[in-house]
Amino acid sequence: MNEEKNKGLEIQKLDDEEFQEEITDLVNNADKIVREYEIGFKKALKEGNFLEENPYLEIIDIYDDIKKALIKRGWNNQITIYNNQIRIYKEKLEKHKKIKEIEEKKAQDKKKINFLPKVSIQAADDNLASKSKGIKLIKELEDKEFEENIDKQVDKAERMARDYGTQLKKGNFNIGCPYQEIINIYRNIRDKLHEYGWNEESLIYADQIKLYKNKLEKDFKLRDIENRKRKQKEKLEKSHRFNDNLIQESQPKISKNIKQKEIDEQFQNEIIKMVNQAENLAREYDNKLKKGDFKAKPIYPEVIKIYRKIRKNLLDKGWLDQATIYLNQINIYKQKIEKVQKLREIEVDKLKRHKEIENMHRTKIVKKKPLYDKQLEDLKQIELEKEERLDKAMSIIDDAEKQARTYELKLKARLSDFESPYDKVIEQYREGKVILLEIGWINEANHIDNTVQYYLDKKKKDDKIRSLEKKKKEKPIMQYTPSRKSSEELEKERKIILTEIENKKKKEQEIFDDIYEILNKAENISKKYTKNIFKEGILNLECPYEEVINNYREAKIRFEDKGWIREAKKLDNSIDFYRKKLEEDKKLRKDEQQKIEKTNQAILDEKFLVEKSKREKEELIKKDNDLQRNEKLQKEQFEIQKKKAFDLMDKAKEEIDQNNFNNALDLYEKSQDIFKNLNWKSGINLIRDSIELIKNKKLSYEKEQKEMERIKSNQSRLEKSLEEEIKKINETTKIENIQKEKERKLIQELKIKEEDISKNAYNLLKIGTKLIKLKKFDDAYKNYLEARKLFTRINWDREVAHINQDLLFDLNKKREQALRLEKYQKKKEKEEEELRQILNIAEEQKKELKRIKVEERRKILAKGQESLPDELEIANILIKNYRYNEVVLKLSEKLEKLKNMNKIGKIDKINTIIESLKEEAQVPLIVLYNSNFMETKEFKKSYEALDRAQKSIIQKKFMKAVSELNEAKYNLEKINIENEILVNINNTINNYRNKIGNEKNEISEETKEIKELDNLKLKIAQSRADRRKRIEELKKR
Fold first, then answer.
1. Hey, is 586 helix, strand or coil?
2. pLDDT band at 370 (very low <50, low <70, confident <90, very high)
3. At 1037, is the pLDDT very low, low, confident or very high (cuts 50, 70, 90)?
4. How far apart are CA 953 and CA 988, in angstroms?
5. Which of 206, 195, 215, 203 is nearest to 107 (CA)?
6. C-alpha span between 692 and 226 (Å, rounded)
7. 292 — alpha (psi -120 to 50), left (phi > 0) or beta?
8. Residue with the larger pLDDT of the pair 64 and 832
9. 118 with 262: CB under 8 angstroms?
10. CB–CB of 307/328 below 8 Å?
11. Which of helix, strand or coil describes residue 364?
12. What dihedral do alpha carbons 92, 95, 97, 101 form, nearest 10°?
């Protein structure tokens, strides 16, 4: 008996816990929906948009369902909380409607201003056709017109970019750059899309703006380089030191870069077309959903396919950052699929509810609103069963009470004439007790023990009286001599006695019926009150126990007046029982009143907190608006100042062309001050480099001027000396030899000085190249600049140009490569650390899993059914360890079991997990193929090798991944598996081999640079030899 009690209590406890969990899940889900909506709503308002759809009605429905479930459960304490929540969300709904009305008025005012001719056409059409159809058609026409306008502008911008690219490819730098105009076009498109409410499409054009901004900066740099080259070319032509070979070597590099850029642009255009196609499809489908057309074919899977294709192309190209962007888009559309699915389910539920309401009105049967899932329906069924069993127990106890009371209230001359009902009454009370224990009414069942004891005592008394009557019967009947009367007289007397007895019996029966009716009324009042307590709550009802006690007292007084003292005494126990009940009821009322006061206080506290949070939210919104305003002003100021600086730079360039270097430096310093005030680092760096170049140009110009003056002075000196020599022709040959000797010495000194300076410069270049190898780029940069200064001193312009155009360019390139490598290594270390953490978590989860299994098995024993979470937990751990094939195999086995058990919900859940694994896996999932070799060792080894390869790919260990893929392939070839699997594995192997090849190409670039340096040294040696020949020729002259 105790075991059954404990089992019943445990089941009740489990039911309560499950019910509470379901309620909390529903509340959490509602909060999440509201939170997501409010964040989106704020964002939309900031961007100047308004979200028409809101989830508040859905939330109110959820809280209504929770409230009904609590009422049915009898958890009246929690109902007030959810009433408050419903009230809050109703207020929010009203606010949203008001905001919507304001926004609609604004939109109407805008449309009146922007589309006055269209409004007149619409008005004419509305008179001809119905309003609803006309609005739909106009909306569609407007959408089409708007799309066509956007497409035209995009085509125009892309055509401009294409034409400019082809002109650059031909080497025509005289045409103006159209990128700023293209950026303005895209900005205009973005603003229009924002105004129209197509926010997702505007994000694509924001990316386009960034792309063309980068192109504009690159174009600016390219034009600067071209200007420098042009000026250097002019200078070289003037000084007759121009070398055609050097230009021929540098030109192919530029043309290659331009070709590569052209290819990249074509690739980008293709990607943009695909994105536009996907977004157009999605937009059309969204419009259908907004119109309420849920029967339309879902288009999101097709959109996901397009984005996957884009991502694959980007990965093949090696553009990993862009690929991650489109992975996010894929995830967004997956979420949209889930939302649409939920919307469809809600629509189906609405139709079902509508049908149920119609049926209810037809049949006039009140049906309760169904709860959300099967578990709640089971709970509902359990509650109904409990109620039925409670009614059964009460009816059994009532029947027992009636039998006992009718027996006790009967006028009994002899007890032996009537059968004792106490055995049956006790048996019925015990049966009622068992039912109450089964439904969890333990206190009430304990009270029944007292009642059973009470009737056992009564049975004992009744048995004693019966035994005494039996003894009396057995005694000999005393003889008496009746007086002799006539038979007629005796008959008369007998009739008179009988009529008197009958009249007396009738009166007594009437009195008894009246008293019984009073008692019955009292009992009915008590029963009705106990039943209504659970439905309506104790404080919503008046306590009837005083009335019941008064009824029992009135019945007792009537019994005493009639002389039925034994029956009157029997009522004392009932009066005492109801007095106790009255005291208990008072206590309960007091406790309930205290609870209500507490909940009211909690509600007041909650209201205060809500109001406080509202105020804080309003303050935050104000702050955000102020910040946005300030940011806008700062941006505008930034653009103005930036333009001013660039204008100064343009003036400075004009001054440089006129060789006014000091004025140019002043202008550049002014623009530098502007950039410093703006704190624009790239602008500061650009100006710093430009100032350095101008200073160098100034120095070289001054040196050139000095050199010209020196040459002129030398020429005048030589002329004078020649005149003197002509005069002294007749002098001796000895003087001529001395003069020649002096000239030779002078040339030799100049030559020695030049060689020393050039040696120092070449040594600095060598040190610079060594420092680059050691990754000391700043020191190398300094050495290169020092070398350049030395070459400018001796007027070796070709070497200066080589340093500017090749060495410094290569240095910057290698510096960027080194930074990229460093970032990559840091990222790799971070990923390895994360992997270690994941493995540690997996170990902990294994331990936790064992504990959960024990608890879950206990629950399964109580419920008598298998549970899915064990397998899902194991699958989750395997997924974290990237063992996708093993996960799919286990889940497939579980699917077969669930299909036999016909558990559709769990089957769908597992199918979604398998689908997501298919998408995430970077190696073939061979366990999905229905192969006959599933149980072979080779097959097991091959899918284990594939899982290891998956892990290696995640860790960027491509060599290892290729070897593991080859191992899997080898094992599968042994068992002669389907050719399709082998082809898939071959493709993945080739893909990762190509990636390894790309990494090797990067290494080979470094060796190429070393070769280029050697070639440079050879060229320098050749130029020296040429210079020596020229000097020797001068000597001969």
1. helix
2. very low
3. low
4. 11
5. 195
6. 18
7. left
8. 64
9. no
10. no
11. coil
12. -160
Q: Over 70: is that where the pLDDT of 923 sits? A: yes
Residue 497: CB atoms within 10 Å: 10
* Residue showing tokens 């066509």: 148
Contacts (Cβ under 8 Å, ≥6 apart) of 716: none
> Quick one: 404 exposed, middle or buried, by C-beta within 10 A (0-12, 13-18, 19+)?
buried
Residue pair 164/178 in contact (Cβ under 8 Å)? The answer is: yes
SS3 content of the chain, % helix, strand, coil (to 5): 90, 0, 10
Give the number of other Cβ atoms within 10 Å of residue 865's Cβ: 10
Residue the block writes with tokens 């007086």: 483
- Cβ atoms of 758 and 794 within 8 Å: the answer is yes
pLDDT recorded at residue 184: 84
Round the CA-based radius of gyration of the chain to a whole number and report it.
Answer: 50
Q: Are 664 and 652 in contact (CB under 8 A)?
A: yes
CB atoms inside a 10 Å sphere around CB 295: 8
Alpha-carbon gap, residue 553 to 547, rounded angstroms:
10
pLDDT in tens, 769-819: 888 888 888 888 888 888 888 888 888 878 888 888 778 888 888 888 888
138: which 2 tokens? Answer: 């106009």
Largest CA distance in the chain: 218
> How many whole angstroms separate alpha carbon 591 and alpha carbon 426?
34
Q: Is 753 helix (H, G, I), strand (E, B) or coil?
A: helix
Tokens of 484: 């002799």
**Cα dist from 618 to 93, 613, 624, 633, 778, whole Å:** 18, 9, 10, 23, 52
Q: Is the predicted pLDDT of residue 642 greater than 60, yes or no? A: yes
- CB neighbours of 523 closer than 8 A, spacing ≥ 6? 401, 548
* The two three-digit tokens of residue 433, written as one number: 């007790």
Reported as type and span, the H/E element at residue 57 is helix 56-73
Instruction: Give me the DSSP letters along 398-451.
Output: HHHHHHHHHHHHS--S-GGGS---HHHHHHHHHHHHHHHHHTT-HHHHHHHHHH
Q: How far is it, in rounded angstroms, from Cα 796 to Cα 1019? A: 13
Show the CA angle centred on residue 583, arms to residues 578 and 584, nearest 5°: 95
pLDDT by residue (tens digit) across 201-221?
A: 666 677 778 788 878 877 877
Give CA–CA dist 332/330, Å, rounded.
Answer: 5
Residue 642's identity, in one-letter code, is K
**For the residues 732-761, what does the mean pLDDT come to?**
77
| Contact between residue 687 and residue 671 where contact means Cβ atoms under 8 Å apart | yes
Q: Could you tell me if 462 and 495 are in contact, meaning their C-beta atoms sit under 8 angstroms apart?
A: no
Hey, is 95 helix, strand or coil?
helix
| Cα-based distances in Å from 304 to 76, 187, 318, 329, 764 | 49, 27, 21, 8, 57
Handedness of CA 426, 427, 432, 435 (dihedral sign): positive
> What span, in angstroms and rounded, lies between the C-alpha atoms of 139 and 134?
8
From CA 461, how far away is CA 579, in angstroms rounded?
25
The residues, any chain, with a CB within 8 Å of residue 181's CB and separated by 6 or more, are: 160
Query: Do 347 and 294 meet the contact criterion of CB atoms below 8 Å apart?
Result: yes
Coil, helix or strand for 1035? helix
- Return d(Cα 156, Cα 164) in angstroms, integer: 12
Please give the Cα distance from 579 to 585 (Å, whole number). 10
pTM of the complete model: 0.23
Angle at 609 between CA 103 and CA 48, to 5 degrees: 20
What is the rounded CA–CA span in Å between residue 667 and residue 691?
10
C-alpha 764/C-alpha 783 separation (Å) is 5
Give the tens place of pLDDT for each residue, 322-334.
Answer: 777 777 778 888 8
Tokens at 535, concatenated = 């439905």
Instruction: Please report which residue ranges of 774-807 form alpha helices under DSSP H.
Output: 777-793, 797-802
Q: Which residue type sits at 638?
A: F
